[in-house]
């Protein structure tokens, strides 16, 4: 449950991630610095979770993202947390497209908050999702004219944002200082308003919400 | 027929105006160069140009052709120096009026077209008088002949076209350099006032936290938290700055996906279609990207649009971008600075912007960047026609025959006095024909080789010239 692969070309950041994760009880099975190495590592080592930088040598384009997508095509649901200096809805959609969970997409800045970052890594390792608040904000902004979304109360919107980032009811209740039953009531309300089938499985419901936001905008 | 006579009448009426102009132009030139009344020249040139312009229009219209004016582009308005004064040679002026007048004067005098106009004005009455019988009897033929005469002296020459093109290129280059300098200054200012200042503050906060570490741990911790927050803010700002310089998606994915990413972030419903087999060069991508970005922002801000269609495609070596929105239209390039900015950005690539925005919409903006995509994309690397290919293959495969065995080797055999005639054609001929035959064979072989080598090269050159030189310069 805690074998980690790290792909990052900047030495300082790579070492920082290794230390951070080791301090939180993860075993770093490989720390690579280029796209081909990453792909080989993903397919041969099958780590429980991988932390991947989008831009990697040799091309310094989206090497890391491409390697992740390819590995996940061959091993569906292989948990990967993608880190980047900038977040794009385009990349988020590509990562979410297979709908199989175990995926994360965060800004590199989120590493500053070690607790939350490690929490996100654990969530992805367990097959959940961890989406950057900025991605969610953009998704919601793009859905501004979306009718069912406009019908949500401000509180429900907050809960939706937290849920879309990949948090469970318990985590949401903690962050928004609400009781868990209130959060459950809000999520049920959101699902009814968006016309989605309610589900007890945290991961599946996040994917449903993200798919809903995604399809709304591109249609 | 009646129309033809109407045109003839118009030309004859113009002839009267010409005579008046001729006399006054003569007086003006006398005043300018004889008495130093230099102020007489510009009105005189303007007057002559009005007459020749009318003649161009009338004669061209009568003969169904366009006679392009040959004048050099007007000089740009003088730019003030840093101290606000205007320089013209070694004199400084407070207002731009005199330098501008000087520039125009020089422009008129040094343009050969001015003097060609004068020559035409001098000769035209004679030509008209000579053509009068033909114009009256056979107006069609006469008008054509007259148009040919006008074209001889009044049409643009290859040199004037080239000069015009050079002036345009010069201006485009200056514009590109200016735009880049402004951009650099903006980035410098952003880094200086934003990122740099924030990093200084960050360093100070960390320093303060370090000092407090021993005495007041709680306060130090608060400061460190603040420092962490500040570094996150700095990163956000830096990210925004980078996006303005060269968006990361553009570098990572190219124009198509970058525009798609742009479309996703736009509040409008945007559909994107990209039809490019490969990635264009980075500067081209950036220019097209920022143009589309500006247009999208415009559509959202002023256009009242709900949905936008973006179409990016390659047309041979040209890159075409089409942005259509369903807003209320009425976009005016002279009002919006955004459209001007796009024009400036594209000018460096000789790009053009066409806007069609009737009141009530829809607004269509078409951008075209000519010859920015590599030739081989279109797949039409100049192909030789089949007969040429066959000829080249035939020549390469057979030209050794006359040159070596029948030419050089036969000549050598004859020079050495060899009795063996073998299959050397020349040696079977009567004695006096033998040397000419050897020489002919060598010549024939050489010519065949030369033709084989130059045929494809010539073909490519033709195609190359067609694609890269403005048609009218090549075929005046």
UniProtKB/TrEMBL annotation, chain A:
Which SMART domains does the UniProt entry name for this protein?
A: HTH_LUXR, REC
Residue ranges occupied by any Response regulatory domain in the UniProt entry: 3-123
Q: Which residues carry this modification: 4-aspartylphosphate?
A: 53
What keywords are annotated for this sequence in UniProt? DNA-binding, Phosphoprotein, Transcription, Transcription regulation
One of the Pfam families matching this protein, by short name: Response_reg
Q: Which Gene3D superfamilies match?
A: 3.40.50.2300
Q: Which residues cross the membrane?
A: none
- PROSITE patterns to which the protein is assigned, alphabetical: HTH_LUXR_2, RESPONSE_REGULATORY
Residue intervals of the HTH luxR-type domain? 145-215
The answer to whether UniProt assigns keyword Transcription regulation to this entry is yes
SUPFAM superfamilies this protein is in?
C-terminal effector domain of the bipartite response regulators, CheY-like
| Key word Cell division present | no
Spell out the protein name for this chain.
Response regulator transcription factor
What is the organism field in this record? Actinocorallia libanotica
């Amino acid at each position: 449950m805690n074998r980690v692969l790290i792909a990052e070309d900047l030495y300082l950041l790579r070492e920082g991630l290794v230390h951070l994760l080791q301090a939180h009880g993860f075993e770093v099975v490989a720390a690579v610095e280029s796209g081909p190495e990453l792909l080989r590592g993903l397919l041969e080592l099958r780590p429980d979770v991988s932390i991947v930088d989008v831009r990697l040598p040799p091309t310094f384009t989206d090497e890391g993202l491409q390697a992740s997508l390819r590995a996940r095509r061959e091993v569906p649901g292989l948990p990967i947390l993608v880190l980047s200096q900038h977040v794009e809805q385009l990349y988020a959609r590509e990562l979410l497209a297979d709908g199989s969970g175990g995926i994360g997409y965060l800004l590199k800045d989120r590493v500053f908050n070690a607790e939350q970052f490690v929490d996100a890594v654990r969530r992805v390792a367990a097959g959940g999702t961890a989406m950057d608040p900025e991605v969610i904000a953009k998704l919601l902004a793009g859905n501004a004219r979306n009718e069912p979304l406009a019908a949500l109360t401000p509180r429900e919107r907050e809960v939706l944002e937290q849920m879309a980032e990949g948090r469970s009811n318990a985590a949401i209740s903690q962050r928004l200082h609400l009781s868990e039953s209130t959060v459950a009531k809000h999520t049920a309300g959101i699902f009814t308003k968006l016309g989605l089938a309610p589900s007890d499985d945290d991961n599946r419901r996040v994917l449903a919400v993200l798919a809903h936001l995604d399809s709304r905008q591109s249609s | 027929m009646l129309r033809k006579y109407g045109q003839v009448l118009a030309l004859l009426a113009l002839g009267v105006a010409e005579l008046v102009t001729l006399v006054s132009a003569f007086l003006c030139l006398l005043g300018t160069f004889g008495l130093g009344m230099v102020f007489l020249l510009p009105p005189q040139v303007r007057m002559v140009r009005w007459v020749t312009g009318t003649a161009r229009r009338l004669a061209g219209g009568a003969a169904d052709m366009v006679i392009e004016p040959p004048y050099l582009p007007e000089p740009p308005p003088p730019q003030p120096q840093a101290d606000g004064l205007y320089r013209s040679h070694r004199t400084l002026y407070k207002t731009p009026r005199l330098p501008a007048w000087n520039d125009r004067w020089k422009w008129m005098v040094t343009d050969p077209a001015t003097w060609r106009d004068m020559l035409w004005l001098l000769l035209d009455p004679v030509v008209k008088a000579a053509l009068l019988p033909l114009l009256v009897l056979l107006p069609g033929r006469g008008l054509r002949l007259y148009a040919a005469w006008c074209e001889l002296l009044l049409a643009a020459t290859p040199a004037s076209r080239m000069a015009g093109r050079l002036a345009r290129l010069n201006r485009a280059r200056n514009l590109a350099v200016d735009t880049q300098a402004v951009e650099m200054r903006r980035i410098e200012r952003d880094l200086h006032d934003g990122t740099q200042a924030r990093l200084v503050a960050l360093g100070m906060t960390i320093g303060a936290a370090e000092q407090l570490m021993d005495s007041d741990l709680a306060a130090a911790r608060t400061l460190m938290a603040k420092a962490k927050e500040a570094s996150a803010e700095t990163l956000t700002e830096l990210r925004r700055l980078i996006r303005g310089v060269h968006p990361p998606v553009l570098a990572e994915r190219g124009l198509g996906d970058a525009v798609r990413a742009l479309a996703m972030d736009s509040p409008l419903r945007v559909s994107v279609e990209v039809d490019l087999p490969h990635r264009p060069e980075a500067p081209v991508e950036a220019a097209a990207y920022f143009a589309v970005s500006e247009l999208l922002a415009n559509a959202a801000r002023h256009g009242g649009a709900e949905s936008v269609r973006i179409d990016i495609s390659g047309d041979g070596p040209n890159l075409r971008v089409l942005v259509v929105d369903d807003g209320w239209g009425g976009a005016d390039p002279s009002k919006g600075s955004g459209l001007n900015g796009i024009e400036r950005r594209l000018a460096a690539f000789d790009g053009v912007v066409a806007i069609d925005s009737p009141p009530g919409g829809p607004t269509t903006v078409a951008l075209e960047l000519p010859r920015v995509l590599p030739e081989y994309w279109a797949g039409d690397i100049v192909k030789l026609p089949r007969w040429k290919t066959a000829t080249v293959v035939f020549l390469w495969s057979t030209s050794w025959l006359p040159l070596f065995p029948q030419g050089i080797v036969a000549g050598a055999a004859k020079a050495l006095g060899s009795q063996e005639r073998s299959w050397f054609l020349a040696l079977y001929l009567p004695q006096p024909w033998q040397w000419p035959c050897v020489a002919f064979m060598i010549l024939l072989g050489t010519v065949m080789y030369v033709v084989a080598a130059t045929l494809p090269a010539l073909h490519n050159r033709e195609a190359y010239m067609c694609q890269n030189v403005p048609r009218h310069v090549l075929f005046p």
